[in-house]
Amino acid sequence: MVMAPERERQTGVPEGVTQRAETPEIPEHIEKLGVSATQSQMPVSIVTDNQGQPVIQQQSNASVVTITLPHDSTQLTNASKGSVSDSSTWSAFFWLRMFKIAILKGWRVLVGGNK
After folding, report:
1. Which of 79, 82, 85, 99 is the most exposed, fewest CB within 10 Å of its CB?
2. Position with higher pLDDT, 60 vs 78
3. Are 71 and 80 in contact (CB under 8 A)?
4. Three-state SS for 54?
């Protein structure tokens, strides 16, 4: 069993590791030149157009994504096994891939969008 050095046991910081403050200290000679610290995160504000209407809308984390497949999975599977020079083969393969991604991410899937 390897014993931790005395400094690590006392402070929880391994030897050779230095800790820095959250906000950096700027030397006075640099501040005199006009350099100052800036915020690391963007402040929350609402962007509006000339009429005062919001341009960007905040999305909630609870939004539900729904995709609609053009056919059921068996028809798409059969169509994806066609000729590589046929565009419908690639379309079917794309929709099968979207179906798998939707299942992985927990999205809602509707089948038969052409009806």
Report:
1. 85
2. 78
3. no
4. strand
Reduce the DSSP state of residue 30 to 3 states and report it. helix
Question: What are the backbone dihedrals phi and psi of residue 111, each rounded to the nearest 5 degrees, phi first?
Answer: -115, 140
Of residues 49 and 60, more confidence is placed in: 49
Contact between residue 111 and residue 71 where contact means Cβ atoms under 8 Å apart: yes
User: Residues of 77-91 as b/e, b for ≥16 C-beta within 10 angstroms?
Assistant: eebbeeeeeeeeeee
Nearest Cα to Cα of residue 69 among 39, 108, 12, 105: 108
CB 70, CB 95: distance < 8 Å: yes
What's the CA gap between 9 and 109, in Å, rounded? Answer: 54
User: Over the stretch 90-113, which tens digit does the pLDDT of each residue have?
Assistant: 999 999 999 898 888 888 888 875
